[in-house]
Amino acid sequence: MSTTMTAPATIAMAPRRRRRRSRSEKSLTALQYLLLVFFAVIVLTPLYLLLVTSFKSPAAFSQSTAWFVPNSFSVDGWAKAWDRLAPALGRSLLMASIASVVSSFLGSLNGYVFAKWKFPGSHLVFVLFLFGMFIPYQAIMIPLQAMMLQVQAHAPWFQGIPVLILCHIVYGIPICTLIFRNYYATAVPNEIVEAARVDGAGAFATYSRVVLPVSLPGFVVTLIWQFTSAWNDFLFALFLTTPNNGPVTYALQALAGGQNPDYPSIMAGVLVASLPTLVVYIALGKYFVSGLMSGSVK
Amino acid sequence: MKGIRRWGPSLLFVAPSIILVGVFVYGFIGRTVVESFSHVVTRSGRTRAPGGFGNYAQLIGDSRYQHALWNLLVLTVVFVAGTMIFGLLWALLLERGVNGEGVFRSIFLFPMAVSFVAAGVVWRWLLSPAQGENAVGLNKLLQYMGLSQLQSSWWSAGRFNMAAMAIPAVWQLSGYIMALFLSGFRGISTDQREAARVDGATELQLYRYVLFPQLSPIALSALIIVGHMSMKMFDLIYSIAGPNSYTAEVPATLMWAQMFQLNDATAAAVNATLLLIIVAVLVVPYLIYTNRSEKG
């Protein structure tokens, strides 16, 4: 089982093969490419539709010609989508940034303890944390909402983004803990922790001087993972915020749900709302994949 | 005393998280369960919830809930089977190394970076039920390709309508499963392949007897991941079918309707508790199994 619980690891490239290929092998390779291209086209189809629709003029858009490339390029849809979504984009950015930093830091502390400075019962606590990762959030939503309303009665400012920041921090703790525990288990040799201990360093000194300095790869993974999941969340947003103080997913839902759908701006809105995670993914794709790997117990 | 000195600081490290997870996960689950047992009488004097396990009997006997459970079953079967099949197929196509592997990998993975809500907006249009002259979306595309007979009302009608709802979910998560399997294949040393080849194993035998058995732990976690995601699926269905779709209702979306349309928090709590139990039945044995074997 340990394979699925290992520390973040990127997918290694296949080693180059130097064997001579027979004819049947060559036709097999051709089939392989044919299938790959075929599936790639299918997977990219919705993206194609998004792009062509977003650049059509809202006035000239017709559903019956939606699959064709636009006759004339228009950025009106993009402009409208940007106007509608910009405030929510800012809120999402703030929310996802803070939530991912804080839950990563908590995850790092926990991961260090569960991997290197165990206390009696720490394994049980770890497993209880892990279960928190799998729970359907419906099971906590009613009391959560009630608690938020109670808090808001005393602290009216506590709505919208601050509420979501708290939620994403708390419900992000399990996955961040798991990722850091697995990372520290392999990246920090026990001997170093033992040596620090023998030298009289306490748990905190060992963490700040030995463990934290080598934590960057773990942080990259949890930050990306947490940022994307907070950014993409809709359930907490729907239960705890409104389209006017909520994240971009909620604003997009409101934009798309109108009576007379304006497809060019809706499709541009989808792209606008997805751009940050797509950029994170394209720029840091390698780490994103590592995040997926280490999240594999999720 | 020495024990406290030794474990105290580390306990202090995890204390904030233990409190947060304790309250927000386990405390709230407890309150949901308590809520689910409550006895509710409406202002007009009608007994809305008989209390205790009677509440559970009431919901389980409700045809709307049974319909939602059926939908969930269809969705889960197609979603799990679809992601596993495409994930494994794509991993097999890529694992021996092809030119442009990175490009294909990125293409297959990119839907994963998009939110369910954003994907749902596109797929709502793609899965429009109109056919024939009024067809749009996929139905129109099928006409262009000369496959008019394949047009479908998708998720909007039929006993197995949720199979169509699984299509966008499969689109989003097959790449994830591919990445899992791919890392599994790459984790197997090349020596083992060479050894099998030297022993005269055919490629088919190599996969059947050497590679696949070593991938079963990954297949198991992939199954658990996709399975529990399916049971929690809310965003995509809400986004595609809208907030009040009976046709595409599953327990997770029904819970929202119970809360905000029926204003029946008790029924919502019963539903949520049952959903938690369904997920726990799937996940707890897996967690115990994983963590036990990891220790030893």
From TrEMBL, chain A:
UniProt keyword list: Membrane, Transmembrane, Transmembrane helix, Transport
Residues in ABC transmembrane type-1 domain copies: 89-284
Compartmental location: Cell membrane; Membrane
Transmembrane segments: 28-51, 93-112, 124-145, 157-180, 210-228, 266-289
GO term, biological process aspect, one: transmembrane transport
Lipid bilayer topology: Multi-pass membrane protein
Family: Belongs to the binding-protein-dependent transport system permease family.
Protein name, as recorded: Glucose/mannose transport system permease protein
Source species: Propionibacterium cyclohexanicum
UniProtKB/TrEMBL annotation, chain B:
Protein's UniProt keywords contain Ribonucleoprotein: no
Superkingdom of origin organism: Bacteria
Taxonomic lineage of the native organism: Bacteria, Bacillati, Actinomycetota, Actinomycetes, Propionibacteriales
Keywords: Cell membrane, Membrane, Transmembrane, Transmembrane helix, Transport
Species for this entry: Propionibacterium cyclohexanicum
Any one GO biological process: transmembrane transport
PROSITE patterns per the UniProt record, alphabetical: ABC_TM1 (PS50928)
Membrane topology: Multi-pass membrane protein
InterPro entries xrefs: ABC_transporter_permease (IPR051393), MetI-like (IPR000515), MetI-like_sf (IPR035906)
Protein name: Glucose/mannose transport system permease protein
Subcellular location: Cell membrane
SUPFAM superfamilies: MetI-like
GO cellular component: plasma membrane
Transmembrane segments: 12-29, 68-94, 106-126, 162-185, 206-226, 265-289
Leader sequence segment: none
Family from the record: Belongs to the binding-protein-dependent transport system permease family.
Domain ABC transmembrane type-1: 69-288
Pfam family, one: BPD_transp_1
Major subcellular location class: membrane
